Amino acid sequence: MHRISRSSLQAARGLKTGLHLSAVVTIAMGLAACQQYQTPSDLLFAPGFSTTRQSIPYTYNTPYDCRTFSGSGWKAIASGLVHNFGDQYRISQAGCFKTQSECQAYLSVMHSYIDVPRYMRCSPYTA
Prior knowledge:
28% strand
């Protein structure tokens, strides 16, 4: 007759707890995925993003709007062509930032939206 030791009971409990935890994590991830993706086309195009005129980041009426910026800092100007499933249009955006690193970060974001960049530059700016 096989005798069950205390260490094998603890190992079995640990395995059972680990399996329960992995099941809960798997279910939670599945539910999160269901809420994020609504249709099969969402699954196909989810890694990208829409490049319509409404989805491109803008700075107007934000703290980075150059019209209301005060003091010295950096001005970012990003312009170029955007392609959206056969449609092509030009955009030009400007923003004013306190630091050069914020300015460069803004240009990096804009570069991901602009397919053919024409002008992307940070310049010192004083309002």
